[in-house]
Specification:
heterodimer; A: 386 residues; alpha/beta; Rossmann fold; 2 domains; four-stranded parallel beta sheet; globular; B: 323 residues; mainly beta; four-stranded antiparallel beta sheet; 6% helix; 53% strand
């Protein structure tokens, strides 16, 4: 009888049975100086990341209007030299939900603020493995894949293609060093051999153009199956293509890349997200945009399903088995409950087409194949989530 | 001996007669070829291929089968074709990016999901005018209409809802949440139940139509396939609505669900990334579109076995039967 009354009540009041819920989300961008690159062919969009959050907001709002749920997005940008913590505190006073586009050390400083202890923070910008390892924070979730997830994805591809003898050229920017470290670990994890390694040092004596320098620079690698380019800023890598001494495929930051998101992803309904994004912002969706979109949609999905808007309930739901996000990658995206990382397939693509999607077939895992990418439960030293 | 021979001849003649009586065609839209392939349900061969607008997906016939409606998604139009000649007669205004639609039992109104616009468009096929546009969730796709014509359903893929439309007012009267990425909807059992498939959620939700409350949820398990790859999309009901045949996408299987107990009875291996399907006239054979392998699998419904694969165009998507 009681149950019947409940059903009746829902039927009678329909949409208004849900109390109006307002979910305010903040987007904080911390500006960092950008190192100069040899070419300006690929400028980073000014609204990189924020645009993704805005598309996610629109998706949430459309869904929310049927359930009496409203979403807002406030954004702030911290200029170089200003203190990001002041802005973060202001934003946390207004909302416990923050999407962050900031370097790893700033992410940690924000996560450690007393004001942030009950908050849900999303890292949409840093692939730093440490943030998912011993430096993890219970209030910091990661919608962007870790560097290790991307390098594991690439290593799986190398294994599948039987390109097992590798050489590597790495830049010297901190992002390059981090990627190279992750890459070396992935090669070991998947039993691949790194038989040569060189550093691309911009201070080197470059009397000729980079293009003329490359054949000589790569001559003493001898023979190998594929060359890994580590150039996360896209400084020199583009000049290595078709200029190497040996005719071998290039992978890594150039050539065949492991990517969070790319304009060439059309399958799994991705074409819809791409065109929605393009229509709203007039440009392609970047990996940072995707991570910010996924963060926004994570909140939306959790609010829709739980009808709650407090961070404690939402965090509990997001990290539970119940949560799943349709992220246009062909399978449900979920969060690792040991370090807050969003599990997701990684695209293996070149600029013109998607080549494969990791995890690749044959890379098995006892619970979830997606956990063959990045830090698995036994590997992660994160304790904050226990 | 003579009488035995007579019986053989008679049954042979009977078989011939019955197969002639039931002959028909399955029309398949080829998403990446901008064509439709027409399959003869007896010979199981492609007998004709017609050109369509860009990215054809949803396909349905008028009641008398004198017209075929095709969603040409990237041409932003619903095309009306003469199925006897393959000639495109005219386009209907459809709103942007029409993906799927359903023809109202009045044979006049088309309910069209506009995937890019979060809108359901209602078009009068006679006056060729838009009657109404209804705001729905993000990426509407699945479309259904109740047998009495009173309720139309749109499912939205990113909002994860079934939107219930009162066709007398063209307004929403209920919105019910389902699992992630709902793709297809059908009314069953004289309209008393409404079923929705959720691709990423991996489930089918059965609603009681009168209360719009959830009556059952069906999950799938294909041996040797990771649960994430078991993605229900299109489905159709067998004769008498006793069983639902459910396309499970990249798991390359069709599930056979008992519509009374809501239990899965069988899995049938078909081509790669199975999308949608259509029965022949007496529902003894089922034709499934397999997007990635570019073919159509013919299933013997009684034996629950695949009989044959028929090569069609690139990325076959929708399927519809005409006698």
């Amino acid at each position: 009888m009681f149950r019947m009354i409940k059903i009746l009540a829902v039927a009678l009041f329909g949409q208004s049975a849900f109390a109006d819920t307002v979910v305010n989300v903040g987007y904080l961008h911390v500006e960092v100086p950008r190192a100069p690159t040899l070419s300006n062919l690929d400028p980073i969009p000014e609204n990189n990341g924020l645009a993704g959050a805005q598309t996610g907001l629109k998706d949430n709002q459309t869904t929310g209007k049927f359930l009496g749920q409203t979403y807002t997005l406030k954004q702030a940008s911290v200029p170089e030299g200003d203190d990001p913590l002041t802005t973060a505190k202001d934003m946390l006073a207004a909302s416990p939900f923050l999407i962050l586009d900031a370097p790893a050390d700033v992410l940690l400083a924000i996560a450690d603020l007393p004001e942030a202890q009950e908050a849900i923070l999303f890292n949409a910008s840093s692939g730093a493995v440490a943030l998912r390892d011993d430096a993890c924070r219970a209030n910091l979730l990661h919608s962007l894949p870790s560097d290790a997830m991307r390098t594991d994805a690439l290593a799986q591809t190398l294994v599948q293609k039987r390109w097992s003898d590798l050489v590597m050229i790495a830049g010297t920017h901190p992002a390059d060093l981090a990627y190279a470290t992750a890459m070396r670990q992935s090669l070991t994890k998947f039993g691949l051999k790194l038989s040569g390694e060189k550093t691309w040092d911009a201070d080197a004596d470059m009397r000729r153009s980079a293009a003329q320098e490359i054949p000589l620079f790569t001559q003493d690698f001898g023979d190998y199956d594929a060359m890994i380019i580590v150039d996360e800023l896209h400084d020199f890598g583009r000049y290595v293509l078709y200029n190497t001494w040996q005719a071998r495929p290039l992978v890594g930051s150039e050539g065949l890349s492991a990517l969070t998101w790319a304009p060439v992803i059309e399958q799994w309904g991705a074409a819809q997200l791409q065109s929605r994004f393009e229509e709203q912002h007039g440009r392609d969706m970047t990996p940072t945009d995707y991570a910010a979109w996924a963060a926004m949609r994570t909140l939306g999905e959790a609010v829709t399903r739980t009808k709650a808007s407090d961070p404690t309930s939402l965090r509990h739901y997001i990290l539970s088995d119940e949560f799943e996000l349709a992220g246009f990658k062909g399978r449900a995206l979920t969060y690792r409950d040991w370090n807050g990382q969003l599990r997701q397939p990684i695209a293996i693509a070149h600029p013109r087409a998607l080549v494969a999607q990791a995890p690749l077939e044959g890379f098995l895992h006892q619970t979830n194949e997606l956990d063959s990418l990045g830090l698995d439960r036994p590997e992660s030293k994160c304790e904050a989530f226990q | 001996m003579k009488s035995l021979l007579k019986i053989t001849v008679a049954s042979g003649a009977l078989m011939l007669a019955s197969s002639m009586a039931w002959s028909g065609e399955i029309w398949v839209t080829n998403e990446k070829d901008d064509t439709v392939s027409v399959i003869d349900t007896d010979s199981l061969e492609v007998i004709k291929t017609y050109e369509t607008g860009e990215r054809p997906r949803g396909i349905t016939f008028s009641k008398d089968y004198s017209r075929v409606y095709i969603c040409a998604s990237d041409s932003d139009a619903v095309q009306v074709m003469d199925p006897n000649t393959g000639e495109i007669l005219h386009d209907l205004p459809s709103g942007e990016d029409p993906e799927q639609f359903v023809l109202h039992p009045d044979d006049t109104h088309l309910y069209i999901a506009n995937e890019d616009d979060a809108i359901t468009t209602v078009v009068n096929t006679q006056t060729r005018k838009v009657v109404a546009q209804i705001d729905v969730g993000v990426e509407p796709e699945g479309m259904a209409v109740s047998p009495d014509g009173k309720i139309a359903i749109t499912t939205s893929e990113t909002t994860n809802m079934a939107h219930w439309i009162d066709t007398s007012t063209q307004e929403l009267f209920a919105n019910t949440l389902v699992d992630s990425r709902p793709r297809h909807a059908e009314f069953a059992k004289d309209g008393t139940e409404m079923w929705v498939s959720s691709e990423i959620g991996g489930t089918l939700t059965v609603f009681d139509t009168i209360s719009q409350s959830e009556k059952a949820k069906i999950s799938f398990e294909v041996q040797g396939v990771h649960p994430d790859r078991v993605q229900p999309v299109g489905f159709e009901f067998s004769s008498g609505d006793t069983h639902a045949f459910v396309a499970l996408g990249p798991s390359n299987h069709i599930a056979v669900v008992n519509a009374e107990t809501y239990e899965v009875e069988d899995y049938i291996l078909v081509g790669r990334r199975v999308w949608h399907m259509a029965f022949n006239a007496d529902k003894t054979r089922l034709f499934t579109t397999n997007g990635v392998s570019g073919d159509v699998t013919v299933i013997d419904v009684a034996a629950r076995k695949a009989l044959k694969s028929i090569k069609v165009g690139r990325f076959p998507w929708g399927a519809a039967f005409r006698p």
